[in-house]
Amino acid sequence: MDKYQRMASEIADAIGGTDNVVSYTNCMTRLRVNVADRSLINEEQVKKINGVLGTVDDETYQIILGPGTVTKVAEQFGLLDTASTGTTKATSSEALKDKGADMKADLKKKNNTPFKNFLRKVGNIFIPLIPAFVGAGLIAGIASILSNNITAHNLDAGTWSQYVTVLNVIKNAIFSYLVIYVGINAAKEFGATPSLGGVIGGVTLLTGMVPEQPIKNIFNGDPLAPGQGGIIGVLLAVYLLSVLEKQLRKIVPDSLDIIITPMIALLVVGLLTIFFIMPFAGFISDNLIGAINWVIAKGGIFAGFILGMGFLPLVMLGLHQVLTPIHIELINTTGATELLPILAMAGAGQVGAALALWLRCKKNKSLSNMIKGALPVGILGIGEPLIYGVTLPLGRPFITACIGGGIGGAVIGMFGNVGAIAIGPSGVALVPLIAHGMWLKYVIGLLAGYAGGFVLTYLFGTPKDAMAEQE
């Protein structure tokens, strides 16, 4: 049995066995499990499993394993003899199912606020796309570096430009058609047919419209631009699609459903998207992006400090994914998101805090080992292992890490005009994605965040009990 098989088996045992698993999935760092009976989860046993970095008890039970590891463990989790297929699975006992349903209902009631539900749905739409953003974004960074070197070093433009073109073709496979991917995922989340959601996303590209015969904005008469309204428009349109599709299925006979429902849904929502949603969402998007850029430009150091300091709590609650559509709109509108490098400083503050704890708590072997395991991915911009395994359980280091992130954000805000051409992990991994050659300013901000988190934690944020000798 290899490492990942062992971890999958031990996790299954600690959460009540595979018979207790209703469904599961994974994101970049977490194995997310729906269970029938929450009382069967042994929290302490889960946390003691070698390789588990922490847990989050939300609507799904989330086990933090870190990037790379979570994918391999999830694969082995699905291969367990009686494990779920990854979609749905009935439990062996009706009584257990009823008890689990009651417990889940109680948990949902606790977290069932409109705001939390909205943020959770938006996050679920974009979480599956993050690996594609990371991969395509890094490819875009390589293409940008090659393009700059062609000019700087007088390279053979014909040969090297072909390489740049090929890399951009790969990168554009997601960014040019992102609205379609978002439409599909939004339809899954809102309860519509995924393929219809993809079509509605594609409608916003205005494929087939010719410049000589533009479609006019009904509010001001200006020609509509392909992609106007961006991701915001797609989310609104697909939500309307889900509402209409559900209503149609109530009245359309079953024998005609596969023909009538898709046709009417696409026609009605497609027309609404082109003539109403795109102009409206375009207005919202333009003003939202303008407001964010204004705050960053005018707020400078102060805005950078507040944004950098406040981002870790969002990550802690799993709500940071809601910012993904904002980053995408900033990139689509201005070519780069200046918000992401500032928010990335939160991770820098936490890395600095972890380094301080590592130095001051060497006698605490378990804490030192946890830091050693979580620190490398923290430097690369994956913050959950350090949050749940190190700083948050200790309390004070989490606060000093947040302030350290604010210091890094203040430095980025002072420089201004530091943006990223794509979204992905933060930390050092974001350096290739920094636009317009501003990577050195970003690195200076990172170093400031590291230093701020380190000094504050070393002097004020290390609990005495954490420094005590422990195995």
Radius of gyration: 24 Å
The biggest beta sheet is recorded as: 4 strands, antiparallel
Number of helical regions: 17
- Strand content is under 5%
The chain-level mean pLDDT equals 83
Q: In sequence order, what are the helices and strands, one letter per element?
A: HEEHEEHHHHHHHHHHHHHHH
Task: Note poorly predicted spans.
Answer: 82-97
- Structural class by SSE content: mainly alpha
Count the strands? 4
- The helix fraction, in percent, is 55-70%
Strand order of the largest sheet: 1-2-4-3
Form type: globular
Distance between the termini: 27 Å
Give an account of the 3D structure.
There is one protein chain. The chain has 471 residues and is mostly helical. 66% of the residues lie in helices and 4% in strands. Strands 1-2-4-3 form a four-stranded antiparallel beta sheet.
Summary, kept brief:
The protein is mostly helical and 471 residues long. It contains 17 helices and four strands. A four-stranded antiparallel beta sheet has the order 1-2-4-3.
